Amino acid sequence: MAMGQGQQQHLPILAFAAGVAVHHGIFRHGEWHLHGPHIIASHIVLGAATAYYLSRFDDALTNILGQLAVLTVAYLTGLFSSMSIYRLYFHRLSSFRGPKLAAVTKLWHVWKVKDSTNYLLQQKIHEEYGTIVRTGPNEITLFHPAAFDLLDGFNNETTRDVWYDIVRPRTSAIFTRDKMEHKVGRKFWAQGLNSKAMNDYYPRILSLVRELSRCIGTFDQNPVDIDQVMSWYSWDVMGEVLFGEDFNLTKSRVTHPGIKHRDRALALAGPLGDAIWIALLGVPAYAACGESQ
Q1: Which single residue of 8, 134, 180, 191 has CA 20 to 30 Å from 161?
Q2: Beta strands in the chain (DSSP E)
């Protein structure tokens, strides 16, 4: 069965319109950073279904793939054009000052901090645009001390940033955006960090401080990698608080595997922390690499 010339001409237009419709009907509503795999899978299925539809009118594989490529480009053009125009001119944050590309996509931010120097970028943005800056399609950054109490003060009703979903599907009292889940986890932590418990920790932590001093002293006149030494010390302190005994890192001067995992994770979180959906796509692969080592 052959497809008419008019039908072929209309398909790219329909694909473009579909991209616009998907943006306004779906992606404009709610949060999507946790659904990256589902979005990719659904588009692959859609592409396969489109290829099957095209195969009914043309048996040549090269023609089918060519038409599919044209439709894909038309669809993505409609989707991203709609996103860009909406975010620049019609979004609720469009009146706030800030870098134009930052208003369109957080990938701009990822590129700017690819060497993990977000603090320098934030300083530059603050100097150029002032105290209140639009730093993302749906993100405002406040460069003012009052922001801490405004956003994270007592009885505050604001929701935590999507960054706290970075360890999904795992969660904890720290890495959760669910207030009830945080409340339950905090309740248990409060028992271990009350005044009585702190009095019990004091002599043990003081002993670790002395061990830290001895550790630094062993370097004599040689340079000290203070980042590494303080990592040993901080993990020993956490061991005392969490498990009732330290990891003996400061004394043995051995780096715990958990520290190595943390450093590798931070190397990714530096550039990708502002586009959490990219980091989440890599979590399964990172976990697999960690288990194989």
Answers
A1: 191
A2: 132-136, 139-142
Same structural domain, 77 and 35: yes
**Cis status of the peptide bond prior to 37, with omega within 30 of 0:** no
Mention every residue, 6+ apart, whose C-beta is less than 8 A from residue 289. none
Select from 136, 158, 180 the last residue of a domain: 158
Q: pLDDT above 90 covers what percent of the chain?
A: 46
Beta strands in 35-166, from DSSP E residues, in sequence order: 132-136, 139-142
Amino acid at 198: M
Residue-number span of the structural domain to which 66 is assigned: 5-90
Q: What is the pLDDT of residues 224-234, one digit of tens each?
A: 899 899 999 99
83 and 26 share a domain? yes
Mean pLDDT of 32-59: 91
| Owner of token pair 């930052």 | 102
End-to-end CA distance of the chain: give it in Å, rounded: 55
